[in-house]
Amino acid sequence: DTEVTQTPKHLVMGMTNKKSLKCEQHMGHRAMYWYKQKAKKPPELMFVYSYEKLSINESVPSRFSPECPNSSLLNLHLHALQPEDSALYLCASSPIKGGSGETQYFGPGTRLLVL
Amino acid sequence: AQSVTQPDIHITVSEGASLELRCNYSYGATPYLFWYVQSPGQGLQLLLKYFSGDTLVQGIKGFEAEFKRSQSSFNLRKPSVHWSDAAEYFCAVNTNAGKSTFGDGTTLTVKP
Known about the structure:
heterodimer, A: mainly beta, 7-stranded mixed beta sheet, B: about 110 residues, mainly beta, 6-stranded mixed beta sheet, 4-stranded antiparallel beta sheet, 12 strands, about 0% helix, globular
């Protein structure tokens, strides 16, 4: 299995809702990433988990809360989002975080619309 | 700090024509360079990567890229473009911390 899966594919939520994005990989990778991508822009790194521990938080607002329950699963909990948070949220994984030459494997993304 | 510049926002080529997408990077140490392709509404797919060794790197789908340290460039090429190559292309550089910095991307349109 060489893919990263993300659910749901699409999500519409109001500013008072609480929702979660899910990412899963079964490649035995020990690093997992969340990126945010606005239309016509490159992905922007949000969080990195290494060995199930949060290792990088790129000054992301607290309305985004990541969670890594085990080495195969990565969640992103959303609460009180703003319309400007509407974007494609990409998950990625790599064998071991910290390796400069590591290839990241990306999931297809969750397209989020905040109303 | 590292940075990546893709000078061409949008490129249009005819099907069957050759393609070159430009990428310039700025990084103080040995760069680890990547090219990704993204179809609309999809995630990123790795085309090829350069770490060290041979400066001409072969990738998937008939793509290749050449690393030129003197020019701080890592340009992507394909001898004959297919209509299915129409997509967004991102060049990226990784740091020792494992963080990726992406260029702003180049949109490729393929004319029939």
